Amino acid sequence: MSKSIISQGNTTNEAIEKGLKELNATRNMVDVKILEEEKRSFFSILAPRVVKVELTLKEEKKPEQTGVKQKREIHLSKEEQEKAVQNLEEFMSQFVKKLPEGTKYNIKSSEDLINVSIDNENLGFLIGYRGETLYAFQNILSSIAGKGINNKVRVILDIEGYKQKREKTLEELADKMARTVIKTRKSVTLEPMQAYERKIIHSRLQDNKKVETKSIGEEPYRRLVISLKTK
What is the pLDDT along the chain (231 residues), one digit of tens a residue? Predict the structure, then answer.
């Protein structure tokens, strides 16, 4: 159920601002309903004006705990796994020939997903800015793996151990921002991130007793907000 509060002030804007501060929210995160606006007569002109508003937090379209919507679990049969690996092997064996000398790859399958790792010291161009190229290539590999298979095949790609390094960086960022929020008592909104990266920060802070996290906005500009827990 959405959280609602009643706030009042001498003007509508003042009442809304007070309510936003209490909810620790921004204007686009709430629905506003004016409940009461005291009319001023000649005899009450010197009396303070009172405006009451109701602020209701909008419901998140995606679960705040993970920042990503729930996906239907897909389990691949043994035959589907073998077919997916074969598709990837055929592609990767040719693709690595175009990469720097000494590049190696590894493919591991399970009924839930296919893991692909590529290793070489000179593959930064295949990772891109904050993994953008890596994630795009991961989607391509998923399409290649699923050729001739009715089920959707999920491929998880890692290059030069980038994801493990990025996970550590994001966990350190989460801890740092949590300390900032606790110290300043002000919410922090991070820049847009991949759902996978938002989930790392959500998970890192889910047991923190003083701060909470939620995702706002729409993809690909969805952001993470870290704020003090409301009592």
Answer: 567 888 888 777 778 888 888 888 777 787 888 776 555 444 444 445 678 888 888 876 544 444 444 555 677 888 999 999 999 999 999 999 999 999 999 999 888 889 999 999 889 999 988 788 998 999 999 999 999 988 889 999 999 999 889 999 999 999 999 999 999 999 999 998 888 889 999 999 999 999 999 999 887 788 999 999 886
CATH 3.30.300.20 applies to domain 78-159: yes
Asked if residues 24 and 227 have their Cβ atoms less than 8 Å apart, the reply is yes
Cβ–Cβ under 8 Å, residues 32 and 20 = no
Predicted TM-score (pTM) of the model is 0.57
Homologous superfamily in CATH for domain 165-228: R3H-like domain (3.30.1370.50)
